[in-house]
TrEMBL record:
Organism: Emcibacter nanhaiensis
Transmembrane segments: none
Protein's UniProt name: NAD-dependent epimerase/dehydratase family protein
PANTHER family xref list: DTDP-D-GLUCOSE 4,6-DEHYDRATASE-RELATED
Every NAD-dependent epimerase/dehydratase domain range: 4-241
Source species taxonomy: Bacteria, Pseudomonadati, Pseudomonadota, Alphaproteobacteria, Emcibacterales
Pfam families given in the database record: Epimerase
Pathway annotation from the record: Bacterial outer membrane biogenesis; LPS O-antigen biosynthesis
Homology family: Belongs to the NAD(P)-dependent epimerase/dehydratase family.
Amino acid sequence: MSKILITGGAGFIGLHLAEKLLKSGNEIHLLDNFARAAKDPDLEAFLSQKNVTLIEADLLDPSFIDKLDTDYNIIYHFAAIIGVPHVLGRPYEVLTKNVELLSNIIEFAKKQKNLNRLVFASTSEIYAGTLKYFDLPIPTPEDTPLGLTDLAEPRTSYMLSKIYGEAMCHHSKLPFTIIRPHNVYGPRMGMSHVVPILLERAYKLEGDVPLKVYSPTHKRTFCYVDDAVDLLERVALTPECEGVALNLGSTDDEITMETLALAIIKTTGKGKGLTYMPETEGSVPRRCPDMTKAMELTGYQSKVSLEEGLARTFEWYKQNIFEGHGITAD
């Protein structure tokens, strides 16, 4: 049994990962300040189990960090200021606070008596500058040179905080792994992402009304959260993953937003056909991770098809949000 700390542990990926790691026989500590996470029935059910502890606190408070345990074997760091409204409205805080959060957790990790791995959640956004100004290979491997978008642009703040964070990990002298998530989706992911947005839009349709889809020609891969947490568990247990950055995403082919929207019509049984809308401002035409390195190092392979993943996600949103308590993450 390993003792594992997950910062941002009450959030979307954090809680799914916690459930996976608990089933594997570990002791799980969730740390969250609930700025974005929801105290919903899913979290309450998880907290009722043995070997689970919730620490409600802010990692920006160094005095509190000093009171935490010093015998964690694995630390997953998901805590961050994220989301387009925050990035556009508070770019300075996004930049400075995300760096401060990681700095605090690195110093905390150095105090651990037997730390096997610090797993840092970076972002696929770090490839945005290369995509905009240079010839970005797609699927995109981890060793792609990173370029920056305009430093005066608010959106750059989040990407830059994660690039800086990756550099901090490399120079921390800790056993670390960096992961760069690409379009992870599933139950309990909030309402600000394309999958739940389209699910809700389709669910509300009456009769043979077409579903509106923006950026219909843009392409993405979509990774169901169960596959994502499978890889997250694997990287922490694989010695060869120490000291490297890995893409986290689906091993399936990329699809267009049009294809996604049609799949959602099929999943919900609502609507007929599509209404094609303009491109979403700031959205890149393609984003697709090269998963070769992660597959070779860990044996990872995504298992949940888009059809199955959308069905599971829709069922959760229908029961809990569209017809239920209505509580989900920011």
